[in-house]
Design goal:
The protein is mostly helical and 494 residues long. The chain is 72% helix and 0% strand.
């Protein structure tokens, strides 16, 4: 199940397979074409996934707390499940970039449905008290499958959308997430009051719907391979051929004295060392791209920090409300209120993105999050938490849409899933660490400390964004993936 944390959405930044790499001083023209069939199916798959994840995610901490486990254990379970999934993300990104995107998405959704179905069955047959081992195993399997899905899904947006329509499609995905945040937690809380198994049944069904939508998409979700489009991958293959002792000249070429030498034998089988070197180069290509691209570095820092802070604040709210005697329905109300605000923000984001300066929008949102986080230190009831989380979700969509769209435009075709996995791994790593940290601080320092610490971190983020956004988000700055000199010359020409 996915987390119920109000996310930025940028941890799953869609990577493009045929990106409009902008020339300095240009921007993609706005596209007013209606959504295609595949776009609508992708929206439905995302909304169904989010609805089920929110319904089950909101009750999982409550279930563990109700079984007698401490807040530290709850945070540890959430952190371990997220961290386990992150391990496979970069590995799955390689075959996704090579054309297996649709298959990985489909089977990942199927595995997730089976994992959540097993939780529902265990809750039903064990009279509401399944073993912690079973719950942890199911959560780990689901989290791993979800990470594979997200890694493979990066690149889908541009494969089914025109360049000028990117902000609208991204905003539609955000709106689906926020709509699920309105209905999912409230629905999950109500179902939990009827039966502990029902929220997990809903999550399993939602994954099944996601799998059906992915299978029904007409696009093969594979990028067209063109010369120079995947320089890193080409270089990897060239390096592997060199290590394997492949020929450096075509067979039958004339020698200096005019004689024709014997044909050069085919390359020897790739050595184990060559295979390992090629795989390492494939896996590290996304890291190199993010490291050498100022725009992607800004996206990395912003999304990682915001996702980690929101995860800490969310679990701090869960622990505080649980300690004060509130059950699943009040927590569902908190997320429903924040989801309604986020839905409004997402629906208005495309218009705001067209009217606002990208630099001003991102910097303003960064500073506005600081007082909201600080105010959570004084919140004491569901309505206060709902209003403050709603403030986060209302102001964040313009910034996240801008960052996602610019990341799409600035990522070259053959590195989409791998670059996206770097961003997701960093953001997911922060979300894996902060719940356990929030639980520890809540137990040993008080419920107000996580919120105050989060506000301090957001101040540092706002300063960093203020100083760096103008260099990479200002109009006329090219959304270029990396300097040409960072790619070996022989890789670019093949």
């Amino acid at each position: 199940m996915g987390s119920s944390v109000p996310e930025t959405g940028a941890s799953r930044v869609p990577a493009v397979s045929t990106p409009p790499v902008l020339v300095k001083g240009t921007e993609p023209a706005e596209d007013t074409e209606p959504a295609t069939r595949d776009v609508r199916l992708f929206w439905c798959a995302n909304a169904a996934d989010s609805l089920g994840s929110q319904a089950s995610g909101v009750v999982l901490p409550l279930l563990l707390l109700g079984l007698g486990y401490s807040p530290a254990v709850v945070g540890l379970v959430a952190g371990v499940s997220t961290a386990t999934g992150l391990v496979l993300g970069p590995l799955v990104a390689v075959p996704a970039d090579r054309g297996a995107r649709k298959r990985v998405m489909f089977w990942s959704a199927v595995v997730s449905a089976l994992a959540m179905g097993s939780v529902a069955v265990a809750l039903a047959v064990a009279e509401g008290r399944p073993s912690l081992v079973h719950l942890l195993a199911a959560v780990l399997v689901e989290r791993t499958a979800t990470t594979c899905y997200e890694a493979a899904a990066r690149g889908t947006v541009s494969l089914i959308s025109t360049p000028g329509n990117l902000p609208r499609v991204v905003a539609g995905l955000e709106a689906g997430d926020r709509g699920a945040l309105v209905a999912g937690p409230a629905l999950g809380g109500m179902l939990y009051q009827v039966s502990r198994a029902l929220p997990f049944v809903l999550d399993a069904v939602s994954y099944a719907v996601t799998a059906v939508c992915v299978r029904a998409m007409r696009s093969h979700l594979r990028a067209d391979r063109t010369d120079g489009a995947d320089a890193a991958g080409t270089t990897c293959r060239a390096d592997a051929a060199d290590l394997a002792g492949g020929p450096s000249e075509p067979a039958g070429s004339a020698a200096p004295d005019g004689s024709v030498p014997r044909p050069v034998p085919p390359p020897a089988p790739r050595s184990a060392r060559g295979t390992r070197s090629a795989l390492a180069a494939e896996l590290s290509a996304g890291v190199r791209l993010v490291r050498t691209t100022p725009l992607l570095r800004l996206v990395l820092v912003w999304t990682t920090t915001v996702n980690g802070v929101l995860a800490a604040l969310y679990y701090d709210a869960v622990f505080t409300l649980q300690e004060s005697g509130h059950g699943g329905t009040p927590m569902g109300l908190v997320l429903a209120l924040s989801g309604a605000a986020g839905l409004a923000g997402s629906l208005g984001a495309p218009r705001l993105v067209r009217r606002l300066s990208p630099v001003r929008a991102v910097v303003t949102v960064s500073w506005l999050m600081v007082p909201l986080a600080a105010a959570l230190a004084t919140a004491g009831g569901p309505w206060a938490y709902g209003a403050l989380f709603g403030g986060f979700c209302l102001i964040m969509p313009p910034a996240t849409v801008i960052l996602q769209a610019r990341a799409i435009q600035g990522t070259p075709p053959g590195l989409q899933a791998r670059a996206g996995s770097v961003l997701a791994t960093a953001a997911g790593g922060a979300a894996a660490v902060t719940p356990a940290l929030a639980g520890f601080l809540t137990v040993h320092a008080g419920a107000a400390v996580p919120a105050l610490a989060s506000a301090a971190v957001l101040v540092l983020l706002a300063l960093h964004t203020t100083l760096g956004a103008g260099r990479v988000l200002a109009p006329g700055v090219p959304a270029k993936a990396a300097p040409a000199g960072d790619v070996p010359a022989r890789g670019r020409g093949r």
